[in-house]
Amino acid sequence: MLSSYPVRKKVLFVITSHDQLGNSGRKTGFHLGEVAQAYKPFYDAGYDIDFASPKGGKTHSYGADMNNAADVWFIQNREATGKLFNASKLSEIVPKKYDAVYFAGGHGVMWDLVNDSASEMITRTIYENNGVVGAVCHGPAALTNVKLSNGRFLIQGKVLTSFTNKEEREIELDKVVPFLLQDELQKKGGMFKPLANWQSNVQVDQRLVTGQNPASTGKLAEEMIRLLKNKSLGRN
């Protein structure tokens, strides 16, 4: 007998495992606000969320804002934090189980997710299965080398955004990161659309959704959810 309950859609949140900010002697990792402020909209919309990272387990985080309701809610949610701090390894992920993949930012992404073959395979598989790919702030670094089955870069010819060169220079990390993300996305054929520093900016092109900075996270999640709902209704 078939169940009368609808199958819950699943979203994979990918975070970095890297915790060293170049040779600066400072710690980095993933931006907790960019996890929390995306997690809550997906959770509220009824999606199942899993976490994965290159090494799995717990990773250093920063960027929690105790004045942000979503951040506070997430930190106090034992189920959510339990999943986050027990992330699966990317090599263990079966991408066909997921309707979307979301890359949270944090400077660590610039080191370990740029050439991660498992991450690239997961992204390609989900996108080519008509799924949605989202990334915010430094998260789009994980997309820079993703190639589709036709040999083209996933981002080639698509309108997108990320943490900008100007924002990187303002926080004086432009000489610390291994490359400037805006430049690399443009080099790989992305049509980059920035706004002023720290302004919310979300770009949607087909099933690719990108956000410029932490302030863009909530809107990005809403756009991903909209695309997933349209997909369910047969509008894509």
TrEMBL record:
InterPro entries: Class_I_gatase-like, DJ-1/PfpI, Prot/Nucl_acid_deglycase. Keywords: Lyase, Stress response. Residues 31-225 form the DJ-1/PfpI domain. It comes from the Bacteria. One of its GO terms (biological process) is methylglyoxal catabolic process to D-lactate via S-lactoyl-glutathione. GO terms for molecular function: glyoxalase III activity. Transmembrane segments: none annotated. GO terms for cellular component: cytoplasm. Coiled coil: none annotated. Belongs to the peptidase C56 family. HSP31-like subfamily. This is DJ-1/PfpI domain-containing protein. It comes from Chryseobacterium angstadtii. The lineage of its organism: Bacteria, Pseudomonadati, Bacteroidota, Flavobacteriia, Flavobacteriales.
